[in-house]
Write a structure and sequence with these properties.
The chain is of the alpha/beta class. 60% of the residues lie in helices and 10% in strands. It contains 19 helices and ten strands. Strand 7, helix 17 and strand 8 form a beta-alpha-beta unit. Bound molecules: adenosine-5'-triphosphate. Adenosine-5'-triphosphate binds next to helix 11. One of its GO terms (molecular function) is ABC-type oligopeptide transporter activity. It comes from Streptomyces buecherae. InterPro entries: AAA+_ATPase, ABC1_TM_dom, ABC1_TM_sf, ABC_transporter-like_ATP-bd, P-loop_NTPase, Type_1_exporter.
Length: 644
Amino acid sequence: MRWNHAYVEHEGALARTGFGQMASALPRMMAVVLRAGWAADRRALVGLVVAQVGQGITGATGLVAVNGVLTHLFADGPTPDKLRQSLPALIVLAVVSVGTALLAAWSTAMSGRLEPQIERAVSTQYYRAVTRVEVAATEQPEIQRHLEAGKFGTDSARRMLGLSVGITGVLISMVASAAVLASLHWALLPMLLAIAVPRGWGAVRTARREYLSRRHWVDHRRAVATLLQYLTMPHAAGEIRAHEAGTLLLRGYEEMSRLVETEQRRLARAQAHTELVAGAFSGLASLGCYGMLWWLLTSGGLPLAVGGTAVVAIRNSTAGLTSLVRQVNRMYEEMLQFSDTEEATRLAAEHAIPRTGAPLPSPVRAVRVEKVSFTYPGATEPALTDVSLRVRPGEVTALVGMNGSGKSTLAKILAGLVLPTEGAVWWEGADGERVELRDADRAQVFRSVGLLAQDFPQWQMTAAANVAVGAGDRARDMAEVRSAARAADVDSLVEGLAHGWDSIVFKGYERGVQLSGGQWQKLATARSRYRDAPFLLVDEPTSALDPHAEIEAFERLRQLADDGTAVVLITHRLAATTTADHIYVLDAGRVAEDGTHDQLMARPGGLYQHMFQRQAAQYGHPPTPPHDLPTARRAGAPHPDAAG
Ligand SMILES: Nc1ncnc2c1ncn2[C@@H]1O[C@H](COP(=O)(O)OP(=O)(O)OP(=O)(O)O)[C@@H](O)[C@H]1O
């Protein structure tokens, strides 16, 4: 059983590649690595190439020197003379060995310098592209999977450099050996090839099988990893123990791990079979190779010294071949992973938020939502249908409604995070000029909006960074950080911590502290205030605050609006909406009612009036008589007075 069957249908193009195509893809991938290396650090790359070519030359020279030594040793004459004559070749051999060692050390130093730089370049390119993808696109499972798969290949480029170095080194030395062998006797070359081909075939088969298995099981493995993560997460610790959730999760882990083990066993059996077949053919070829050598020597077709050199060359090449096979195997896998990253980066660019667009009017006098409908990718029901409303600077616009009625979705549309499926969002200027969200410069839209989401992120960073991350497009200004914190009533709390603004607001780190839910909400509020944008969208900003803090928070939002900010307030605390300038009541994705608090309370049987009275009743006010309750409205049946 796989965690996600749909993923099985998605296979990368390289997974279907045959041996020939793989061989032709290798140089292309090496070219990619070379390009990345060239962009990252030219000097290191040139040093690396020189070291590799140098090692190839020293290898070939060494083999020629071995031949020289053997020729003298196998010649007729007294042994002291033969040794003396072979001395120059022995000295060359010694110099070549020292040279090879120096070049190998240089190569290691250069690749060590280059590898992290390449990884950084590829990762930055991938993550930059991914963070620019339209939010709606990331919600499409097919795109999400591609983007997720790309994550595994960000360090492949780094490993590919190391492997390219290894493969180039072995290839150069094998080509050098082959050239020396061919110059000694032409028949030795096809023998070398006969040993190489079965091993190459086995490597490709093994790599492709492992890759496909990993792709098919990636979601399953992710789920297993997530299960384990929960077991040690501090915020899950309570339920893990009190609800015995840990027992359930561990059982799930064991079951899922057993499935992985079954797959591992299948893979190991298949790999062993491939290795056996490849090894058998390669062994037969080696046998033939030595047999032929024997025949050449005994029939007098080959001098004994050349035979000795050939044995050294074949042994070198076979040892090199084993390492080549291993490295090609890994290179092929890395290639597949890397091509996923390339594909993800390409896909991300295809679905990126446009970098250009019409400038917004300055100043913006209103954002007008006109007959907007929105359906989440893959959803069967629309989250919003035919919604119209207006948000203006200097006003608090409240969005209220039942759970799932579409308030947060509407906030995402107002923030420019998702584009409507139908309808338009106009950013209007003072003189009637207006720009539609799809045509607008989205970067400018984002700069105009401060956001406090219902599920705001709790960054595992310092308190200062948690506020300053609210405006990642400008340098941190601690005076502004403090002022935003003051506005969110969290300044004295942070400044009272042992490490003040440098405290890491997550336990477990050095300087780490644990904040309460309400303190986190205040810190997130400070973040949205630090954005200092003309539009502020706050989604349940007081859900974790105590009564005093809540009242103060709403008063501050009111003050902010009075000072000219357009505040969009999403809340279930209807006491706070009494002072809103305009309230939109959402019901099943439609605007059911809108108006001021007084207007809405004056609507007999209205949804707002009903919700308000029920809340008020908790504080001792008489509940609404049953006959006043509104009838449930469904999507497709808008309230007759809904804003259009
Ligand atoms: N990312 C998503 N993908 C698919 N459907 C979603 C997504 N987010 C919300 N929905 C659906 O859209 C509808 C509106 O959700 P939304 O979060 O906008 O409601 P809400 O009014 O903010 O609710 P609440 O008061 O509970 O916060 C719901 O039916 C919800 O299931």
